[in-house]
């Protein structure tokens, strides 16, 4: 279960439901546990009826047309104030007090 980004989903749930996060976490854990059993069985059945192309195309289309729109439209977006890009860039490009070099996005330039 550590390979399915369950930690990231728990953090997202904690941000979405700040007061009552236990029930959604249990539901995610139950779905993750059942997904393996259902996934292996359905892959086996699809492979029995066709080649490896059939499960690959079916799972890719499920991800593209079901999971991606759900993630795009169902998850709440953070407020605009927390996503202010110019303030993050100006904070990252400040010169360090002990160095004559300014680091900005991984590129160093010497200040003379």
Verbal overview:
The chain has 112 residues and is mostly helical. It has 2 domains: 2-76; 83-112, no CATH class. Helices cover 62% and strands 7% of the residues. The chain is built from 4 helices and 2 strands, in the order ααααββ. It has helices spanning 6-16, 22-49, 53-74, 85-92; strands at residues 101-104, 107-110. A two-stranded antiparallel sheet has the order 1-2. Helix 1 (6-16) crosses helix 2. It is elongated, with a radius of gyration of 22 Å. The relative contact order is 0.06. The mean pLDDT is 76.
Round the Cα radius of gyration to an integer and report it. 22 Å
Strand arrangement, major sheet: 1-2
Give a short account of the largest sheet.
2 strands, antiparallel
Question: How large a portion of the residues is in β-strands, by DSSP E?
Answer: 5-15%
Tally the structural domains: 2
| Integer average pLDDT | 76
